[in-house]
Amino acid sequence: MNISEILKNDYSICLLTFLINVLIIRLFKIIVLKRLKAWAKQTTTTIDDFLIRLVGKNLFPLLYFGAFYLGVLGLTLDPSLKKGIDVLGLVLLTIFGVRFILSIINYSLETHWVKKGRDVAQDQSLKGIVKAIKAIVWGFAIILLLDNLGFKINTVIATLGIGSIAIALAAQAVLGDLFSYFAILFDRPFEIGDFIILEDYLGTIEHIGIKTTRVRSLGGEQLVFSNTDLTNSRVRNYKRMGKRRVVFKLGVTYQTTLQQVKEIPVIITNVIKNVKDTTFDRAHFFAYGDFSLVFEVVYYVMSRDYNKYMDIQQEINFAIKEEFEKREIEFAYPTQTLYVNKT
Hints:
Structural class: alpha+beta
């Protein structure tokens, strides 16, 4: 058998076509892709590096299968074998197509998170989003694959639609919490580690789940809230407080002289101004109480740390007590005076 007869053989043509296509793909990978990688390293952006990695990871396997598919096109194959190759092609196209789409979505989310400043809480949230997106994308991809393979997918979708309505009606609370989870994730009213107050409950966020959020209270017990409860309520987030406004009152006896009453706001002002990490606002003779002359004081603690606030308030109380003792100013306490008329 001479060379011309060999080349006329269908299998030889198939093999030759496959090898030529593989050679072209290899040359493209070695020459073009290598230069693109070198160019991407010189740029400051990361999207070009990502796209080149994405092409190398997902496109070339499909190109190699395409080279094989073009080679076997010239062969007379058994219908079942040809159908098997077509099915394999659709499956591979679906798998690598889904991987391509998920890689783009994952890169977009990570880029968005990096711009906001990632932390452990955001990483956990990102994992939750990616899992949900993967389930949705793979679900649509499988439906499209089955439709292209000839399955009567419309009937299946209609059945699933009716079932989904029934499930949705039975699980409204769960779905509501799921949507609230996404609202918390993207709007970020609070994050893990934040100290919040919700109605009569207060504590530190420990975990944000798909259905519930867990809070560690000051007493040590764990509080579990549904995500819907949190998104539908007024939540006070103390971790995002730039500074703490403090208002407190104190009372002195009615026996305090007018001169001493006038000195008290000055005393309190000087005390607070001498305490580190505070900003004084005001101090006034506020009201005549039932058993005391009432003074109201307002200042700011330049920190959101509750322990630091208590240390500062304690230091202020000590200093006021010391100054009042020096000037013989007495703090008031509940007293009653009984007047008796002699007849």
